[in-house]
């Protein structure tokens, strides 16, 4: 059983790990550079990933049902974990000016890239369709909570700040793509085959290109910097989040598929967007980058452990 779970875990994490390493290696030998990574990341965020999420919904099997209670649990669990992270940070971390960056690094998961890659690898299109709605709802929540925690250590959150958050959410390509897909699915509007086929070409680019870019931005030299602050956030992100949120869902009685999706989403490393937001709001951008580096590298280990445990409990049978 041990070797079977280990082999299954490697079959899931192996392709993601190889693409991340390949991105790091290609950047190392200067076959790709920062300009490529910046442009490719924009292409993924604005075009190919919205196309993937949109198509996964409109092409979803009609028997696939989205459990509103599951989405509600995901939102409440993430909100509760944000409050736990905030309380713990204020209790144990002395440098108040870094609280916002540490809190964001501890709760904000890279669901749209890393989490979705694992879901697609294990569950295929049906899993991605279910995960898309989770990604949309948590993306909205993450943006709101990130602004709150980063603003609380810089200045008061005013009306303009709320307007900026609302505008950012409304213009988010991922949310737009998912919303359009859900509307077309509900209204039973058929998309012309030629458009579906064209969009699929973009969708197929998404995860390989996104993982290459993620690997290229990984700075292994930063893993030991900034001491306990980065490791504090990483502990919350990689260990506490998947354990508490997935464990709570298990006690709640959700299905194996829903539990598996929730694990892959909550075990994801800190989102790369946390660096951009920390930098734009005057936070400690270097600390944010260190947290992303540690959680991205560490998630390969924690994902493997989690998958092995879930496999041994027949969650993927």
Top-tier CATH class: Mainly Alpha
Low-confidence stretches: none
Q: What is the domain total for the residues?
A: 1
Helix/strand structural class: mainly alpha
How many individual β-strands?
0
Q: What portion of residues is helical?
A: over 70%
General shape: globular
Number of helices: 12
Termini separation: 13 Å
Mean pLDDT: 85
* Rg on CA atoms, Å: 19 Å
What string, H for helix and E for strand, traces the elements in order? Answer: HHHHHHHHHHHH
Q: CATH architecture, please?
A: Up-down Bundle
CATH domain fold name: Na+/H+ antiporter like fold
Beta-strand percent range:
under 5%
Largest sheet, in brief, is: none
Description of the molecule:
This protein is mainly alpha-helical. The chain has one domain: Na+/H+ antiporter like fold (Up-down Bundle), CATH 1.20.1530. The chain is 79% helix and 0% strand. It has twelve helices and no strands. The protein has helices spanning 2-28, 34-58, 68-92, 99-107, 111-152, 159-170, 173-187, 193-216, 227-252, 256-266, 273-280, 285-312. The longest helix has 42 residues, at 111-152. The two termini are 13 Å apart. The mean pLDDT is 85.
């Amino acid at each position: 059983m041990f070797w079977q779970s280990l082999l299954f875990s490697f079959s899931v994490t192996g392709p993601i790990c190889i693409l991340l390493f390949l991105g790091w290696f290609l950047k190392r030998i200067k076959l790709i550079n920062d300009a490529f990574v910046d442009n490719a990341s924009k292409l993924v965020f604005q075009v190919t990933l919205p196309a993937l999420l949109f198509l996964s919904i409109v092409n979803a099997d009609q028997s696939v049902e989205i459990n509103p209670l599951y989405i509600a649990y995901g939102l409440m669990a993430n909100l509760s974990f944000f409050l736990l992270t905030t309380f713990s940070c204020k209790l144990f971390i002395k440098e108040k000016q870094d609280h916002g960056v540490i809190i964001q690094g501890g709760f904000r998961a890279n669901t749209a890239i890393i989490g979705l890659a694992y879901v697609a690898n294990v569950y295929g299109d049906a899993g991605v369709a279910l995960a898309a709605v989770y990604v949309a709802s948590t993306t909205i929540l993450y943006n709101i909570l990130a602004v709150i925690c980063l603003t609380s250590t810089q200045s008061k959150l005013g009306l303009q700040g709320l307007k900026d958050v609302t505008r950012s959410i409304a213009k988010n390509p991922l949310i737009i793509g998912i919303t359009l897909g859900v509307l077309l699915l509900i209204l039973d509007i058929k998309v012309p085959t030629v458009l579906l086929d064209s969009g699929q070409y973009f969708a197929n680019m998404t995860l390989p290109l996104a993982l290459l870019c993620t690997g290229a931005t990984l700075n292994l030299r930063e893993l030991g910097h900034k001491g306990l602050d980065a490791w504090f956030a990483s502990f919350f992100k990689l260990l506490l989040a998947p354990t508490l949120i997935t464990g709570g869902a298990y006690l709640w009685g959700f299905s194996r598929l829903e539990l598996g999706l929730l694990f892959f989403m909550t075990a994801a490393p800190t989102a790369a967007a946390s660096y951009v937001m920390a930098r734009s709001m005057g936070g400690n951008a270097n600390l944010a980058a260190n947290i992303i580096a540690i959680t991205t590298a560490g998630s390969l280990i924690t994902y493997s452990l989690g998958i092995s445990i879930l496999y041994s409990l027949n969650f993927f049978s």
